[in-house]
């Protein structure tokens, strides 16, 4: 029994060695020779010599261990060749389909860009410009805070992230497109609403609404509180920008957001802090080799074009 087992292994090894010799090129030559009923016609269609077609088919016959074609006046399939022809034709057709998909991806006629964003104010205009130039592409959007998007990018779950960071991550390709700082969002009827600026110290007696841990808004604000030794007793945590603004508008307290995030949100007024608070950059982030991917490269080109236009 052991001897038979060894012979089976040797046979498998031989098949693997033969498989290494077979290629899509050989399959294509076989299929074309059958369809054209001629080696010379197949050679002409594929742009190779007739002996090359013969070599490819002999390679296949060595791989399968049987004759596939009867050579004579024209080309005829053997019984084994008849069975294998349809399978080979399917493989060749799929390879042509795959080649077409690859060409479309390279030329940006189709494909999917996975875009993560924490800053819709910056992400959506860039996305709109990108899709105007590349209407055939599909985009999968993934909202999240800075920490979530950095993790998703590190795991290759997204291709590009638009988020705030204190500084550009050295392990990623980063393009700075804006800077942002924490400000206060207050209900229109609140006593702070008539102020242009307010001190961080004034927040110690207020119910404060903050973003979730991992949000860069919260990171920057907590840095400011530590710098000026501000101690906050009453906080309400809301895990989204829209939820925080709605909580402020409903009178649940005053909230910390980044400048420009109110966008005239109904019933909410923005007030600057009187102290100099830390700021962060809004970055477009991708893997360092991400621009090897056509869609990422095109998106980064869109970002660069947008930045040049803004500087004019």
Overview of this protein structure:
The protein has 312 residues and is of the alpha/beta class. It folds into three domains: 105 residues, Winged helix-like DNA-binding domain superfamily/Winged helix DNA-binding domain (Arc Repressor Mutant, subunit A, Orthogonal Bundle); 99 residues, D-Maltodextrin-Binding Protein, domain 2 (3-Layer(aba) Sandwich), CATH 3.40.190.10; 97 residues, D-Maltodextrin-Binding Protein, domain 2 (3-Layer(aba) Sandwich). It has ten helices and 13 strands. The strands form three sheets. The protein has a six-stranded mixed β-sheet with strand order 8-12-7-11-9-10. A five-stranded mixed β-sheet has the order 4-3-5-13-6, sandwiched between helices. A hairpin with a 1-residue loop joins strand 1 and strand 2. Helix 3 crosses helix 4. It starts with a helix and ends with a helix. 29% of the residues are buried.
SSE string, helices as H and strands as E = HHHHEEHEHEHEEEEEHEHEEEH
How many domains comprise the coordinates?
Answer: 3
- Percentage of residues in helical conformation: 40-55%
User: Using DSSP, what is the number of strands?
Assistant: 13
Descriptive key words:
312 residues; alpha/beta; Arc Repressor Mutant, subunit A; D-Maltodextrin-Binding Protein, domain 2; 3 domains; five-stranded mixed β-sheet; 47% helix; 22% strand; disordered N terminus
Short description:
By secondary structure, this protein is α/β, with parallel strands linked by helices.
Topology of helices and strands:
Blueprint: H1 2-21, H2 24-36, H3 39-46, H4 50-64, E1 69-72, E2 74-77, H5 79-106, E3 112-117, H6 120-133, E4 138-143, H7 146-154, E5 160-165, E6 172-180, E7 182-187, E8 197-198, E9 208-210, H8 216-227, E10 235-237, H9 241-249, E11 254-258, E12 268-273, E13 280-287, H10 294-311
Parallel strand pairs: 3-4, 3-5, 8-12, 9-10, 9-11
Antiparallel strand pairs: 1-2, 5-13, 6-13, 7-11, 7-12
Helix pairs in contact: 1-4, 2-3, 2-4, 2-5, 3-4, 6-10
């Amino acid at each position: 029994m052991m001897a038979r087992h060894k012979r089976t292994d040797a046979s498998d090894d031989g098949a693997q060695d033969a498989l290494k010799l077979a290629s899509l090129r050989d399959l294509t030559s076989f299929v074309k020779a059958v369809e054209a009923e001629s080696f010379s016609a197949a050679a002409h269609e594929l742009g190779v010599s007739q002996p090359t077609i013969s070599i490819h088919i002999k390679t296949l016959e060595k791989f399968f261990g049987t004759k596939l074609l009867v050579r004579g006046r024209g080309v005829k399939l053997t019984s084994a060749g008849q069975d294998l022809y349809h399978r080979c034709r399917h493989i060749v057709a799929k390879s042509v389909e795959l080649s077409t998909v690859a060409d479309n991806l390279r030329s940006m006629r189709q494909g999917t860009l996975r875009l993560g964003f924490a800053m819709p104010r910056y992400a959506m205009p860039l996305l709109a410009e990108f899709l105007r130039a590349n209407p055939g592409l599909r985009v999968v959007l993934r909202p999240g805070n800075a920490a979530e998007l950095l993790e998703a990018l590190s795991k290759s779950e997204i291709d590009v992230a638009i988020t705030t960071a204190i500084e550009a991550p050295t392990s990623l390709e980063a393009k700075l497109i804006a800077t942002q700082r924490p400000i206060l969002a207050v209900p229109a009827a609140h006593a702070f609403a008539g102020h242009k600026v307010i001190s961080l110290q004034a927040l110690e007696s207020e119910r404060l609404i903050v973003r979730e841990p991992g949000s860069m808004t919260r990171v920057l604000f907590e840095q400011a509180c530590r710098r000026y030794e501000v101690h906050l007793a009453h906080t309400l945590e809301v895990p989204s920008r829209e939820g925080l603004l709605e909580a402020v508008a409903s009178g649940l307290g005053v909230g910390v957001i980044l400048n420009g995030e109110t966008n005239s949100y109904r019933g909410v007024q923005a007030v600057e802090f009187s102290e100099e608070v830390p700021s962060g950059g809004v970055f477009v982030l991708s893997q360092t080799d991400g621009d090897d991917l056509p869609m990422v490269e095109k998106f980064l080109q869109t970002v660069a074009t947008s930045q040049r236009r803004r500087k004019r």
